[in-house]
């Protein structure tokens, strides 16, 4: 091999990260070698720290370092509305618009027969539980405008109508103002705001 | 902020890495969060390990986890020829051609008035010291074909002629078969082999 063993090991570990090929792994490793001991330790520690201290919010399944997340604990948030997203990164994208002030529910995925993900693996039962408490007046289904995202939204809307037939909850879907097949995580803020404004009841 | 504190900290640390923007930092952090405890620990440990166990080879200034590097200790290497490169990554690029079987000398940079790097900050004195021992018959100056790389090569060839006037050492420069302004680190192997074969005495 061309590298000393500990260096080859670091390059190998970095290559496992998404979007990091052999070339970038080498560049990152050489950067770390050149960085100060303190900088390397800060990076190393933050990796361990994130694994030990971050868990899922008991209410909405967003990432948090406490029992419940900052958003669920925020008294200024509108508790009558829940925005349902697939992943924590979609929640981050939504928050960046600064246009939404309700609560969230992170499904932790979408229904995908291809990848063997059924409704039971998602946090749908927990969503029904939150809605059964009666405080919520509207849920916005903000899964991606893809086949899986649309299927998941449709599945959830049917489940809610069946499980909570008497509940007066408006169920809406973010408008498909976003390019179909795209990723919520990569949409620009203006498109996301449009999609929120044009939501339609289903 | 949109992230829990330990997560924001990890994203911040990852953003400091070269070529990692806010978006990739977020993707990497979410990947680490999703990875197993063991995988995260392996990455974290390898960062610390590389900092504590990797140092510079006492002879050629390549990275090594011992006193001297694998190449300097390899009895099969031709000790009569030294290839002079700017950075360890250039040595790796050269090794990947499988065409060069001599020793190396890593300058740890190039002369760059713009970045305040003068000849004294490079390992040029150490190179002269190696050549003064009399075993070496040729040195190949394989710095990048850039203004800084060319200047550094020219400076070294003059220094050697002055400091070792009696030494019968052939000083050659890799051919500029590579696109000028390019980076040795990114050249394909065929181009590098060509550049080695077309070296000219200076």
Characterise this structure:
The structure is a homodimer of 202-residue chains. Chain A has 202 residues and is of the alpha/beta class. Chain A contains 8 helices and 7 strands, in the order αααββαβαβαβαβαβ. The first copy, chain A, has helices at 5-15, 22-34, 37-53, 70-73, 88-95, 124-132, 147-163, 189-197, and strands at 55-56, 63-64, 78-85, 102-106, 138-141, 170-173, 200-201. In chain A, the strands form 2 sheets. Chain A has a 5-stranded mixed beta sheet with strand order 4-3-5-6-7. The first copy, chain A, is elongated. The N and C termini of chain A lie far apart (60 Å). The mean pLDDT of chain A is 88. Chains A and B meet through α1, α2, α3, β2 and α5 of A and α1, α2, α3, β2 and α5 of B.
Keywords:
5-stranded mixed beta sheet; Dna Topoisomerase Vi A Subunit, Chain: A, domain 2; homodimer; 202 residues; 8 helices
The quaternary structure here is homodimer
Overall pLDDT confidence of chain A: 88
List how many beta strands of chain A DSSP finds. 7
Number of domains of chain A: 2
Helix content of chain A: 40-55%
Q: Helix/strand/pairing class of chain A, anyone?
A: alpha/beta
Gyration radius of chain A, rounded:
20 Å
**Range of strand content of chain A:** 5-15%
Span between termini of chain A: 60 Å
Helical stretch count of chain A? Answer: 8
Q: Which pair of chains forms the biggest interface, and how many residues does each contribute? A: A-B, 55 and 55 residues
Task: Flag low-confidence runs of chain A.
Answer: none
Overall, the morphology of chain A is elongated
The main β sheet of chain A shows up as: 5 strands, mixed
Task: Quickly name the level 1 CATH class of the largest domain in chain A.
Answer: Alpha Beta
């Amino acid at each position: 091999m061309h590298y000393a063993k500990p260096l080859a090991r670091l390059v190998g570990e970095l290559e496992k990260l998404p979007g990091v090929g052999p070339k970038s792994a080498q560049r990152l490793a050489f950067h770390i070698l050149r960085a100060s001991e303190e900088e390397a330790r800060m990076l190393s520690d933050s990796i361990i720290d994130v694994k030990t201290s971050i868990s899922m919010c008991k209410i909405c399944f967003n990432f948090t370092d406490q029992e419940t997340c900052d958003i669920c604990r925020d008294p200024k948030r509108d508790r009558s509305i829940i925005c349902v997203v697939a992943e924590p990164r979609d929640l981050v994208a939504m928050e960046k618009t600064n246009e939404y002030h309700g609560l969230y529910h992170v499904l932790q995925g979408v229904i995908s027969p291809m990848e063997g993900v059924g409704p039971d693996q998602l946090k749908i039962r927990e969503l029904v539980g939150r809605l059964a408490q009666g405080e919520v007046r509207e849920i916005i289904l903000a899964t991606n405008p893809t086949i899986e995202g649309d299927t998941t939204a449709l599945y959830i809307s049917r489940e809610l109508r069946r499980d909570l037939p008497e509940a007066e909850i408006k169920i809406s879907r973010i408008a498909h103002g976003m390019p179909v097949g795209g990723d919520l995580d990569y949409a620009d803020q203006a498109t996301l705001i449009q999609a929120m404004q044009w939501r339609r009841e289903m």
